[in-house]
Amino acid sequence: MKRSTGKAGERRQHERLDRPQLYLRIGGHTFQTTEWSYGGLVIEDLGGILPTGALLRIDGLSDEESYRHAQPPYQVDIRARVVRVMPETRQAALTCLKLDDAAYRILSGIENGNELAIAN
Predict the structure, then answer these.
(1) Could you give the CA distance from residue 25 to residue 106 in angstroms, rounded to a whole number?
(2) Beta-bridge mates of residue 35
(3) Is 48 part of a structural domain of the chain?
(4) Mean pLDDT of 83-107
(5) How many separate domains does the chain show?
(6) Residue 29 pLDDT exceeds 60
(7) Which of 24, 37, 47, 94 has its CA 20 to 30 A from that of 16?
(8) 3-state SS class at 1
(9) pTM of the predicted model, to two decimals?
């Protein structure tokens, strides 16, 4: 059963998480999430390089600890689309179109606080 909040109600299928942060590799650039769920991500787009409607392939994913220790990102295959650009906050909202098994395993491990689940 879905919970209703506000006038329009909550339509989200997946709970948004704002911690821990994730780092994504898209086309050789690294982006930090401000919130995420299995269905989508809000990322910092400080350079304003992601246009609305763009189809993206996320091929690397890191948690905060791995990123801080300069470990290479985990190999994933996430297909996403930029659904909204927010220039005033220098962010972009992405919807996930496809998550491979590795990405799902990593996100599940992070969501559940199981750091061992994010190892390759």
Answers:
(1) 15
(2) 42
(3) yes
(4) 96
(5) 1
(6) yes
(7) 47
(8) coil
(9) 0.78
Distance CA 99, CA 76 (A): 8
Q: Which residues 6+ apart lie within 8 Å of 90 measured at CB? A: 44, 45, 46, 48
In a domain, 119, yes or no: no
The answer to whether residues 12 and 22 touch, using CB atoms and an 8 Å cutoff, is no
CATH number, residue 61: 2.40.10.220
Cα angle for residues 75, 77, 78 (degrees, 5° grid):
125
**Which runs of E-coded beta strand occur in the chain?**
22-26, 29-36, 40-44, 55-63, 74-86, 91-99
Q: Is residue 8 part of a domain?
A: no
Residue 2 lies in a domain: no
Separation between Cα atoms, residue 5 and residue 103, nearest integer Å: 29
Range of the domain at 51: 22-112
- Per-residue pLDDT, averaged over 61-73, amounts to 91
